[in-house]
From TrEMBL:
Gene3D superfamilies: Transferase(Phosphotransferase) domain 1 (1.10.510.10). PROSITE patterns: PROTEIN_KINASE_ATP, PROTEIN_KINASE_DOM. GO terms for cellular component: nucleus. The lineage of its organism: Eukaryota, Fungi, Dikarya, Ascomycota, Pezizomycotina. This is Kinase-like protein. ATP binds at K42. Residues 15-155 form the Protein kinase domain. GO terms for molecular function: ATP binding; protein serine/threonine kinase activity. Keywords: ATP-binding, Kinase, Nucleotide-binding, Serine/threonine-protein kinase, Transferase. One of its GO terms (biological process) is chromosome segregation.
Length: 155
């Protein structure tokens, strides 16, 4: 594992969990309160540490990119829970997958202009990633926000 001076070891988290958002094989995501701000916290088990550190490094490279969630400073390691946690902007609303399912269930659909806008924003984000030699390896509707400005959340 390469040296990362910004990695902080702490068994007293700097955040308060407000709500579980979701998770999968890679880790769990929570809505948390940290330094007076509501942010998203991605918590990854240490057996996925190298992949999590790679994701963190990629997101650091992509800070300020159009249509990509903004990473916040600070990566925390807890021996107590054997996890790495990092923080990014929290976006209210449903992810793109949930929006599609809700529309489908109600017999509705996105308009053509909405589909074009969603596709454009995703293409701009991916073009920026590729320009920085970052490959998004988990592109799917669940990893996009449900806001007007959609942002890939997971790498």
């Amino acid at each position: 594992m390469q040296k990362r001076p910004w990695l902080v070891e702490s068994d007293k988290p700097t955040y308060q969990v407000l709500k579980w958002i979701g998770g999968g094989g890679f880790g769990q995501v929570f809505k948390v309160l940290r330094n007076g701000q509501t942010v998203a916290c991605k918590q990854v088990q240490l057996d996925n540490a190298e992949a999590a550190l790679d994701e963190y490094d990629h997101m650091r490279l992509l800070r300020g990119a159009p249509h990509i969630a903004t990473l916040h400073d600070g990566l925390e390691f807890s021996r107590k829970t054997n996890t790495l946690s990092f923080f990014m902007d929290y976006y209210r609303g449903k992810d793109l997958d949930r929006q599609v399912q809700m529309l489908k269930g109600a017999g509705g659909h996105f308009t053509e202009s909405q589909i074009i806008e969603i596709g454009y924003q995703i293409a701009v984000a991916l073009e920026f990633c590729h320009g920085m030699n970052v490959l998004h390896q988990d592109m799917k509707p669940m990893n996009g926000t449900g806001e007007a400005t959609r942002r890939p959340l997971s790498f």
